[in-house]
Amino acid sequence: MAENETIKERLIFFIKHLNIAQGKFEAQCGLANGYVNNIRRSVTPDKLQQIARQYPELNTGWLMTGEGEMLKATVSQSTQGDNSPNLNGDNITYSDTHIIGKFLDEIAEQRKLTESAQTCLATAQAQITDLINQNKEQFAQFMAMLQVMQTAKV
Q1: pLDDT of 3-47, one tens digit each?
Q2: pLDDT at residue 84 above 50?
Q3: Contact yes or no for 33/11 (Cβ under 8 A)
């Protein structure tokens, strides 16, 4: 499904499948007005949970990764009889573990990027400190030369 490459595109596709307006979908899920249009890269776990509670038929694995089918084959109802998916961990599916794995991979990648950025910042800070010290030395030399020139004029 090449036209649904991003989470935002897949969510819009699902909303169109529901045949409702984005604003109504956002209201039903407890999302801010315009939330769907403002999705940049991903959906936070709490927002994903809000969507899953309201639309248990949505395959969140598909939403997050684009893999599998948009709709779940079956939806088990909770003991209360509402349409909320079982979120207490009793029925974790391959799709759930796959999504968790992807989130953990993304967290690990973000951690590596953060560590790399911290190393770059430390290097840049050391270079800036060296340049400041060089500037101070050059300024001191300049002031000494200026003092000599003023003394020589007198």
Answers
A1: 678 889 999 999 999 999 999 999 999 999 999 999 888 888 888
A2: no
A3: no
Using only C-alpha atoms, what is the Rg of the chain?
Answer: 28
Tell me, letter by letter, the H, E, C secondary structure of the chain. CCCCCCHHHHHHHHHHHHCCCHHHHHHHHCCCCCCHHHCCCCCCHHHHHHHHHHCCCECHHHHHHCCCCCECCCCCCCCCCCCCCCCCCCCCCHHHHHHHHHHHHHHHHHHHHHHHHHHHHHHHHHHHHHHHHHHHHHHHHHHHHHHHHHHHHC
pLDDT, the chain, mean: 82
